[in-house]
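Notebook, p. 212. Picked up where the previous page left off. The plan for this session was modest: take the two constructs that came back from the sequencing core last week, fold each one, and keep the raw output in the notebook itself so nobody has to go hunting through shared drives later. Recording the first one now, exactly as returned: residue sequence, then the structure token string.
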Amino acid sequence: MGKRKKTARVSEDEEMKENQSSSHHKTLYEILGVERTASQQEIKKAYYKLALRLHPDKNPGDEEAKEKFQQLQKVIEVLGDEEKRALYDQTGCVDDGDLAGDVDNLKEFFQAMHPKITEAGIEEFEANYRGSESEKKDLIDLYNKYKGKMNRLFCSMICSDPKLDSYRFKDILDETIAAGELKSTKVYEKWAKEVSKTKPPTSPLRRRQKSKKGSESEALYAIISQRQDDLDVLISDKQIWWGSICCRA
């Protein structure tokens, strides 16, 4: 009897060590290709690069890529939220059964894709995406997902910048709400009221291209270049991405 219990205990210990080892090698940080000490801005930039690669517009009809894109959004929901990230850092657990079971496969999927994303490719995608029906659909989907919490929406919305797009997104959402296709929320109404008090940007859809040679673009390119060693599995030497700092709602 005693020997059987000892054998069972050894087996349980080995299984626990194996699970811990597996979880150590497959973390949400590794999926994004960043260190555990990465800033929120670095995390969001890494998320944007992968999101661009998996976006349905880039992979029409590819159900696997669509599924991975949805899983990637769950990753940024954890690491893009300071409280959820802190809890994940402490426990190593993900409060999502679907994501927890697919972390290994998600990382392997990204590694297998490994396409070269050029600066020109990113600019072309952004030019076609911003102001498109696809962007509108993503905006409405994320509005529903976050129940009108626009700070969280901007965290997940690719090719977006609160300074450039708040007015534009507000107009789209207000129109959709007025048409009865979307339900307004108190948190959204509060955000929309604050946006209305600010001065709208001039030509927000074209402003990015005009400022491409400006200091903002150069600064972001420098940040990405410094992180190249950590992201060499995921990005090429000439990648650049724009995005706002991810804020917690």
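Okay, moving on. Second construct, recorded in the same format:
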Amino acid sequence: MKSLFVFLITICSLATESFYNQPLQLADGQALDLNRFSGKKILIVNIATAGDRVPQLGELQQLHMQMGDSLVIIAVPSNSFGNTNGTAAEVAEYCRQQYSASYLISAGAEVKGNNQHPLYAWLTQAAKNGALDSEVKSDFQKYLIDKNGELMGAYAGSVSVFSPAFIHALNQ
């Protein structure tokens, strides 16, 4: 009986949080229920409106158009690296006007540090995501979630969504 109790405690301590239970709001303030994307791959990208990687906003739109409903793209405006000006609603409007963005754009969030958003805590901590520890090192860092809500991988902000490595991961 004692060994069964120890086994159950061990199993419970290994349990990870579900991606689909992470809180997220859209730029307009509406709650986004991630459960509605169960069965689809999801790409999470922390975005900025200044810096040399801003053209990736256009790449995200191209990918969104190519992949259609098979991939959900969620852009997360963040000023964690000092490259985002304005509110999340203003960033969303900028993305729509400059890049015809039709992918989802969330409310702004801190992606690192003491005020890290719970979604990014899940993305960066193996204890929560069950896969890997990572650190958000720059704007446009990418996280790919599989159809079961499991973290597939993290990609540096310098990696294009059209790079061979990313396309290979996307097609797995």
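Notes on construct two before I forget. The first helix runs from residue 2 to 14.
Flagging for discussion at group meeting.
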